[in-house]
Amino acid sequence: MLFGAGQTIVFMGDSITDAGRRGEAKPYGNGYVGMARNLLIARYPDLDLRFVNHGVSGNTVRDLAKRWERDVLAERPDWLAVKIGINDVWRAFRGNAREAVPLPEYEETLRYLLDRARASGGTRLILLEPYLIERDRADPMRAMMDEYGGAVGRLAAEFDAPLARTQAAFDAALERTAPAAWAADRIHPNAPGHAVIALAFLRAVGFAL
């Protein structure tokens, strides 16, 4: 398992990471972050890990850049888990094309932010793929999301960071189920959908029963 005793893990992302962490589900949310935290604490109680959720609903990589200093660098985390990209793509399909983030800008901005985090004090990185819960890879939004997921994969290799294969995890689930089993809108997971993401994250960090 990657995490060591007393380490701090910060999660950055959009609504999937937020998952109500600023409301009645404070401070970890009722999504994959809270699920992964609970399982890590239950399995490794001796590590005394500290978790921080800084997901904000609606964020794109541009929004992460605006709050990177406060929500990442100021925390000085041992590990930083980033899952961003869904809104960067989704807005191109919801009549907000000006708010969508083109792939080159997305990749370069994320690279810059990750480099700042790593250079600021030895923060180690964990990346999670953006996803669409859609089995038809020719679907226009799925095809674009795969391109952004490819950029995250390249950055994971570039930074030697563990990659949580969230799209692959949903693809495996969709071999036997319909998208609606995991999310009503192919994006925002229900509780089992969040568990799929949590399991992908736990696999990436070497969690073992």
In summary, what is this structure?
The protein is of the alpha/beta class. The chain has a single domain, classed as SGNH hydrolase (Rossmann fold), CATH 3.40.50.1110. The protein has eight helices and five strands.
In N-to-C order, the SSE pattern is EHHEHEHHEHEHH
Main sheet specs? 5 strands, parallel
Question: Which consecutive residue ranges, at least 5 long each, have pLDDT under 50?
Answer: none
Name given to the CATH homologous superfamily: SGNH hydrolase
CATH architecture: 3-Layer(aba) Sandwich
- Oligomer state equals single chain
Enter the CATH topology name.
Answer: Rossmann fold
Count of discrete alpha- or pi-helical segments spanning 4 or more residues:
8
Strand content: 5-15%
Number of strands: 5
